[in-house]
């Protein structure tokens, strides 16, 4: 099966300016998923989708193919799914076909090749529409997560008549990570909510699940990345 890796990296970012090309160990953040994807024989092509000429130029220098993303689906309120659909349609118009869609966000530079291989193995199983990565939750909506009510007071996220005394008693929950996502082009094109299909997870250990979203996350990544 032909597998294409995609890195979606828009130019605008609020939390960290120019986040997708900020440097860690003198390498832009986008370097890490491109480098890893190009190492793997399981991946046939690597594409970067962006509205930023700076990002696209760096991607080309790193050996990735590029997809120019329209500005109207590149703002901070644009659902990522729109960029996915655009990429699939772009290649379809070019009469380029593939079987497996793999998204590798720039924000998870601690991922390993083992993680990606597990994602690809899972998406190739029968009746699987979508594969996400996740880590076990430290908190749980049944026990120690709360939400603010309209009156200003707080309550548990999930209220139930069943009494839970310890975290070990509640249903197991996971936090999604940005280590990777996989699907099929056809499912992406017809979907309005990727989670509505048959979803599987690849569990990621805490030490590889960092998602760079804040300056603190960035500082942590700089300390942890040794290459």
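^ Assign residues to that structure.
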């Amino acid at each position: 099966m032909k597998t294409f890796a995609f890195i979606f990296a828009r130019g605008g970012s609020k939390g960290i300016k120019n986040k997708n090309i900020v440097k860690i160990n003198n390498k832009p953040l986008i370097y890490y998923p491109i480098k890893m994807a190009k190492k793997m024989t399981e991946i046939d092509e690597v594409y970067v989708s962006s509205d930023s000429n700076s990002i696209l130029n760096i991607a080309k220098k790193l050996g990735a193919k590029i997809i120019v993303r329209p500005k109207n689906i590149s703002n901070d309120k644009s659902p990522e799914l729109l960029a996915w659909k655009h990429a699939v349609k772009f290649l379809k118009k070019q009469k380029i076909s593939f079987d497996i869609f793999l998204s590798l966000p720039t924000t998870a530079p601690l991922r390993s090749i083992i993680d990606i291989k597990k994602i690809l193995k899972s998406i190739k199983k029968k009746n699987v529409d979508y594969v996400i990565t996740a880590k076990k939750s430290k908190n749980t909506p049944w026990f120690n997560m709360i939400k603010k009510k309209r009156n200003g007071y707080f309550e548990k996220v999930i209220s139930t008549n069943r009494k839970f005394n310890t975290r070990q008693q509640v249903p197991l929950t996971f936090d999604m990570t940005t280590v990777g996502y996989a699907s099929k082009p056809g499912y992406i094109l017809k979907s309005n909510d990727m989670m509505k299909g048959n979803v599987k997870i690849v569990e990621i250990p805490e030490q590889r699940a960092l998602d760079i979203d804040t300056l603190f996350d960035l500082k942590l990544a700089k300390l942890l990345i040794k290459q």
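Residues 146 and 156 are 4 Å apart (CA to CA).
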